[in-house]
Amino acid sequence: MEEETHGIVIIGGGICGLATALALHRKGIASLVLEKSETLRADGATIGIHANGWRVLDQLGVAAELRETANLITAYHDAWLQGNKSNLIPIRNEFRRVNRKDLIETLAKNLPVGSIRFGCHIAAIHEDPGIHGAVLTTMDGSTIRAKVLIGCDGTNSVAAKYLGLSVPKPIPRTVLRGFTRYPHGHPFGTEFLRLRGENFFLGRLPVTDDLVHFFVTCPNPSTGITKDVGAMKDFVLEKLQECPAEITEMVRASDPESLNVVAKLWYRPPWQVMFGTFQKGAVTVAGDAMHAMGPFIGQGGSAGLEDAVVLARSLARATVGREPCDKKTIGVAIGKYVRERRPRVAMLSLESYVVGTLLRAKWHVTKLACVAVLALVGSRSLRHTDYDCGRL
Fold first, then answer.
1. Cβ burial 140-168 (10 Å sphere, 16+ → b, else e)
2. Domain 171-265 is of which CATH architecture?
3. FRET partner for 315 with CA separation of 20 to 30 A, picked from 7, 164, 263, 355?
4. What is the pLDDT of residue 130?
5. Which CATH architecture has domain 3-70+99-168+268-386?
6. Which residues have CB under 8 Å from 352's CB, separation 6+?
């Protein structure tokens, strides 16, 4: 079987993996991204990016292009069907909902040709007793030796398993999401509507003047429904019967090709993020592989972007030219990255966990406890969006 050697190898060609490769490239450091899919993984969903994420995209040199694809969102409009309550929370920092496809493709096209290897599925990782950080075995039996290995391979991460991290836990919710286009412009302004019903949570986000993204979460229905997008759409519309007509019409008129169902949401509990092992020599993880969190505070993607900048900045101190230094120096650099990121992502994981618990809570005591924690961490003020991970 074939065997090859590389300096820095990144497993996973998603947002975090591509951002990490681009951050390294901006520092003049070569890397190879291994992606198991045959093409870029860019589904029809969007990703919310607050000011902290846009600071990273500015550092990567792609923010200006991406800002052209998405309008500013200026406020959260929280509404409850029960009691007919409503609340408006202004967003003072930059927040846009970007098409995930646009983000993935923009990151990828700014990488050197040959930086991404598609159709490369890693089956196992082993420690290298020599000068390399790890030995990777692919599904076809080939071997890749890497001086530095970065796992950006999501919730089912082979790199996380190598580090001994526990498998992320499932959230008992299913999500239907998609796009609706309004040829003559939508009437929803620049507000992110968050509508809560008895058995559902709906989000409506303007992307451009004529394009809206929406998602609906609800308790897990039968397994058969989640495998059929049309059946899931009908199931959701039944739950939305008491909503204003503009809501049901938005879902009914959605682009069928954009609709997809997320049958399982995953998260890494905050105590695992605080105390988990994120490094073994020259091997580490970033993005969802490190700190998978529910979508409840909209920071999963931006946190992964922050990881990319901090990791590239740390590794730049352990390279000579375009290649990594010795194993010990690399280990020190990765250790600095882990120490810098752990407090930040642990706090985000805690906040996301508490918000998710609050949304599902049925007991008043549980709700009061969640509200108290969120007051302490500043969730209502969106303090987490002010974070600046620094220059690349």
1. eeeebbbbbbbbbbbbebbbbbbbebeeb
2. 2-Layer Sandwich (3.30)
3. 164
4. 77
5. 3-Layer(bba) Sandwich (3.50)
6. 267, 293, 294, 296, 297, 299, 300
